[in-house]
From TrEMBL:
InterPro entries: CheY-like_superfamily, Sig_transdc_resp-reg_receiver, ST_Response_Regulator, YcbB. Residues 2-118 form the Response regulatory domain. It comes from the Bacteria. It comes from Keratinibaculum paraultunense. GO terms for biological process: phosphorelay signal transduction system. The modification 4-aspartylphosphate is found at D53. Pfam families: Response_reg (PF00072), YcbB (PF08664). Keywords: Phosphoprotein. Gene3D superfamilies: 3.40.50.2300. Signal peptide: none annotated. This is Two-component system response regulator YcbB.
Length: 283
């Protein structure tokens, strides 16, 4: 995993380098003390992860991230700052920075955050690989190699995720579990189906089932938005706001709750279902 550091304090850079190397967290391919130089080198080196200071001379971390994000959307960002303003951190999240390391630097926090970013990237890579494999095969034949006990464990993991985001008791929770179980048993993703096709496997009224699922997923979105307003570095918020939903939609919902907009956040059901299956298998 290639990493690049943009930080105006050489001592912080040295500390981060030691932690990353000692913990075997990745390979540092470059570093810079100002945003303008960092922008040029990041576009040239194309690292997987950029650790960027929020406040720097020349070009701040938020501006740098926005510029790079427009050209290299797959690069992940970790903000380094001692700024505690929630408004400032919210602006950083809006620019595409999803993870946060506070100053003074703590080795355990650095290791934990970098591992979370790597897990997120691995999840996306696995989902992309699965989708690619099944698009090449004919009609996604069912794969029944998993033992029942393993599948049951995965489904229990799905239920745990639903409890974490506060939707376990919602009317559409069983519908979500049914589809998750089917996807796990057949080793498929939602890319092989329309939502109507998936729901039709369980009911003669797929539209109603889809509406139940959407309402349930929307409750989870609202719950995460409220968590983010209270604490936008909360572990559940950071983990699931971009893993189950589009973070920009979570942010819109946060702004709606704050009274800043009349728009509501929207749910991508396919992303939600694929994400909940992925996290269910991890727990």
């Amino acid at each position: 995993m290639k990493m690049y550091i943009v930080e105006d304090d050489d001592n912080i850079i040295n500390i981060l380098e030691r932690i990353i190397e000692d913990k075997n967290l990745g390979q540092i391919v470059g570093k810079s003390n100002d945003g303008k130089k960092g922008l040029e080198e990041i576009l040239l080196l194309k690292p997987d992860i950029v650790l960027v200071d929020l406040l720097m001379p020349g070009m701040d971390g938020i501006s740098l991230t926005r510029k790079v994000k427009a050209l290299e959307p797959n690069i992940q960002y970790i903000m380094i700052s001692q700024v505690s303003s929630k408004d400032m951190i919210a602006k950083a999240y809006e620019s595409g920075i999803e993870y946060y390391i506070s100053k003074p630097i703590n080795a355990i926090e650095v290791e934990t955050v970098i591992k979370k970013v790597k897990e997120k990237m691995n999840m996306k890579q696995k989902l992309d690989t699965i989708q690619s494999l099944f698009s090449e095969e004919s009609n996604g034949h069912e794969i029944k190699s998993k033992e029942k006990e393993e599948i049951d464990n995965y489904i229990e993991g799905v239920k745990q995720v639903m409890r974490k985001i506060g939707v376990a008791g919602e009317v559409g929770s069983q519908d979500i579990i049914d589809i998750a179980k089917y996807l796990i048993e057949t080793n498929q993703t939602t890319s092989n189906f329309t939502i109507k096709e998936l729901c039709s496997r369980f009911t003669d009224n797929p539209k109603t089932m889809e509406q139940r699922i959407r309402r349930t997923a929307t409750v989870g979105l609202i719950n995460l938005a409220n968590i983010g307003i209270e604490d936008n570095i909360n572990e559940i918020f950071v983990e699931y706001s971009n893993g189950l939903y589009n973070f920009e939609q979570v942010k819109i919902e946060m702004d709606y709750i704050r009274g800043k907009t009349k728009k509501r956040g929207r749910v991508n059901i396919k992303k939600f279902l694929d994400g909940i299956v992925y996290y269910g298998k991890r727990l």
